[in-house]
Every structure is written in structure tokens, then in C-alpha cells.
Design goal:
The structure is a homodimer. Chain A is of the alpha/beta class. Chain A is built from nine helices and eleven strands. Chain A folds into two domains: 168 residues, Molybdenum Cofactor Biosythetic Enzyme, Chain A (3-Layer(aba) Sandwich); 72 residues, Alpha-Beta Plaits. Chains A and B meet through helix 1, helix 2, strand 2, helix 6 and helix 8 of A and helix 1, helix 2, strand 2, helix 6 and helix 8 of B. Strand 2 of chain A pairs antiparallel with strand 2 of chain B.
């Protein structure tokens, strides 16, 4: 992605934990939301991995990614049942102990009567040593942050609450700005002039996304120009828009 | 996942290639479809990675995954524009040359008039040396298979056509069977007996998936029992169903 992707940008990876996504039973709704929100605030999502509910796979993914990116987010696997192994896996990844955290237990008691706080539910208060908690406005059982790893729930509404709770405390870069130009043309008819524009604006990222317009059955193309620099976005975007007009014109 | 996941199973990983998914602009629709179809035919999807349009990232993901799994599928980045770098990246991953393939060129000419077969469109006929082609019934520009790596388009309709074209020639295992039991209960109220059932049936995979029922605003739980063995599925599924009934009963 060249110079548009300069050093100093704040980056992130996401690890989605769950057999149910890999089996196709559950359609993930978190990746798109997290990608949009991080882009909005100036954190560049650079990689996503979906891994099964297997400790060694979770540990391997988290340890590989936390070395490479500013932040690693995880979703899923922090509930009360036997297949919820994320907190223990993160403790293993960091080589720290894990136990019921009194702060987390107190949060659970805001939502669950003490008589209902059985052993299974107490699992949701198990937090790796040294982690800070991420509040959950929906159902109280918290997520947590250890080092640069932020552990969130898998239920979308709860995950979203945790993401908003943690975003204010994270470092952010300048947001990547974008402009989309719709071309009523097949990619292959505009690829050459588009490539020339991409070469002329190395500080912009220019993507070409074909799709089939279901209203008329035709293949069309969304051209997306991205830059952190408003002036570059304007200049490269105008060049793409002029090219698309010229391609559509008579001749 | 223990014994349910025995040796001899046929496994796969998926690499989704595209800045547009990582930026949140495009919501991926391929992961869920591929996960479902592979599960249907008896191929276990074990990991998904979403990576940007950057050659070294694509090469690293494909080379890591093709060592570990029976098959690696990729989606995206095989069109005619400057940002379509998947074919070149796969050639680099395998250390082979890449050039316009006469078979692929002939396929393009079924759909595109020779006068419109410009240099950009000819990029879609660039195929790594030694690869076989995967036909595309929608718009002809083919995918390809090299070693255990299957390269498909990103446009869902085209990807689906390619997936159906390639599935018949792949090895398959016994399909993982599944049964879902809805519990009108919060996870924490059934976690203990569910854990006992999971321990009693080590050959089954039992997952617990909480969700908020938007019709009544209550948190409920889907319990999913999975096994390749119909008798195990029945026995473990019946045990879960009885437990759910008992939990709901007067008491």
C-alpha cells in the first residue's frame, strides 16, 4: 500500500474465536462493525483471523498478532460454559495466572443476584493477572485488556458496548479518508486509465470493486480512493471522477 | 475439540484478500457461504484469515496455511485492475513463473470480444505455471488451483460458481452432523449440567451460543451438538434435550 501507509499509523488485528463461525452455523456480524469503527477513529485494521475454540490455536494467533500490531481485539468465548476458553487462553498466551477477580465479581453482582452467582457464572469473573476490565453496559460480565490485547464478548450488542467503552483510551492515528466513485463500466474497460492514476498518486490507495447491479443485471465498478491527506484525496478522487466521465462519454 | 476431531479428517483454511473488507467498506459475504458448503460436504474449515492487498501478506498467509491444512481457498484480487495481485502473489508463494495462459485466454474470448480483450483484461488470464483452471460459469475469467491452493473470485456470485466447480474434485471426509437445541434459559443457568454432558460425550463437540431474542428481549441459548457419528449425535443430543426440559420444568 506504499506511502499511504506510512510509519506512525496505529494498527490493529482482530481474532474471532468460535467453532460456530467456522462451521457456518453462525454468520459473523462483528468483523464488519469493528472494521468500520476502527477506520472511523483512525486505527487501521490490518488482519483478521477466525480460529476455533482450541486453546493452542487461540494462543498462537494472539501471540503472532500482538507482536505485529498496535492492538489485538478478540471476540467470543468469554461466557460461562465449558466451551468458553478465551480468558484462560489469553492468560496462557501471556504466561500469567488467572483467577476470579473481585472487581469483575462485583460487576456481575450488579446484574445477577448473589444466590444465582453459581460456579459457572463465576467463570465470567476469571480475569488474567494484571488485566484491566472493559465494562459491559448490557449484561455487566466484563471484557478485559492485558497489554495490547482487548478481549470482548461475541454477542454483537455486548461486543459493541465493550468496543465503545475501550476506544476512548486507545491511541489513534489520523483517520483514513475515503471517496467512492461509481463507474457504470466493467473493470476491464477502465483498468488502464485507473492504473495510470494509481501510479500518479502513490500517496493514495485506489481500489476497484466490481459488483453486479441486481436492478439491471449489469456488472459495474466502485472505485474507492483513500488517503489520510484531504488534498491528496481531492486530487486523486477528481482524477478518477474525470476518467469515469470520459469513459462514459460519447466516443 | 478432542476425539471428535480425529485424524483423517479433511481440513481447509480460507484467505480473504481485500483492503475493502478490512476497512469495513465491504461486508464480506463469502466466509459464511464457504463455511456452510464445506461443512455440508465433509471438509472442516479450521481457520480464516482476512489480509490486505499486499503481496507479502498474501504470501505469508498462504504459505503458513497450506502446510497445515488439506486445502487453502482464497477469495478476491483476480480481476483486471492494478490492485488485483492475487495470481502474482500465489506464483510468488509457490516460487513459480506466471504468464498469460492460452486456456484461460480462450475462456475469456467466450465472453469478451477479441477487440475488447485489452491488456488489462488479459491480466485475468495470467495463471501461475503448473496450475489447473477453475471454471467460472458467470463471467468466464477463471480461478485456478495450484497444489492444494484454490484461488477464487471475490464477487459472491462468481465465487459460488467456482466453488461448485471445484468441490467435486476434492477429497472429503465424513460430514460433521449437528443438532441444535434451543434453551429458553441464560447460559449461566445451564452451564453446569451442560458441562457434565460434554464430559460424558467426549466424542461429541457441544457448543453453547447465547443470543438476545429480539421478539421478547430475553437472552436465550442455542446448544449445538456436533459429531460425525449419528449414534453419538443422537445420544448426546437427547441428553442435552432432556437437560433443557428439566431446566424449564417446575422446580
Amino acid at each position: 500500500m506504499g506511502e499511504a501507509d506510512g510509519a506512525g499509523s496505529i494498527t490493529a488485528a482482530l481474532v474471532v474465536i468460535g467453532d460456530e463461525v467456522l462451521s457456518g452455523r453462525t454468520k459473523d456480524k462483528n468483523i464488519g462493525h469493528i472494521a468500520e469503527r476502527l477506520t472511523d477513529v483512525g486505527i487501521d485494521l490490518r488482519e483478521v483471523r477466525i480460529v476455533p475454540d482450541v486453546e493452542e490455536d487461540i494462543v498462537a494467533a494472539v501471540n503472532a498478532l500482538r507482536q505485529r500490531f498496535t492492538y489485538v481485539f478478540t471476540t467470543g468465548g468469554i461466557g460461562p460454559t465449558h466451551d468458553d476458553i478465551t480468558a484462560d487462553s489469553i492468560a496462557a498466551a501471556f504466561g500469567v495466572s488467572i483467577d476470579v477477580d473481585p472487581r469483575a465479581r462485583a460487576m456481575l453482582l450488579e446484574y445477577i443476584a448473589e444466590k444465582d452467582l453459581n460456579e459457572a457464572r463465576l467463570r465470567m469473573a476469571r480475569i488474567p493477572a494484571g488485566a484491566s476490565l472493559v465494562v459491559n453496559e448490557v449484561s455487566k460480565a466484563p471484557g478485559f485488556r492485558i497489554g495490547n490485547v482487548i478481549v470482548m464478548a461475541g454477542v454483537p450488542r455486548i461486543m459493541q458496548s465493550m468496543l465503545e467503552a475501550v476506544l476512548p483510551e486507545l491511541d489513534k492515528g489520523r483517520p483514513m479518508l475515503s471517496r467512492t466513485i461509481l463507474a457504470d463500466a466493467r473493470e476491464g474497460d477502465i483498468a488502464a486509465p485507473l492504473g495510470e492514476i494509481a501510479r500518479a498518486f502513490p500517496e493514495a490507495v485506489i481500489g476497484s470493486y466490481p459488483f453486479r447491479d441486481e436492478t439491471d443485471g449489469r456488472f459495474k465498478t466502485n472505485l474507492v480512493v483513500r488517503s489520510r491527506e484531504p488534498a491528496v484525496l481531492d486530487a486523486a478522487g477528481d482524477a478518477v471522477a474525470r476518467m469515469v466521465e470520459a469513459a462514459a462519454g460519447p466516443g
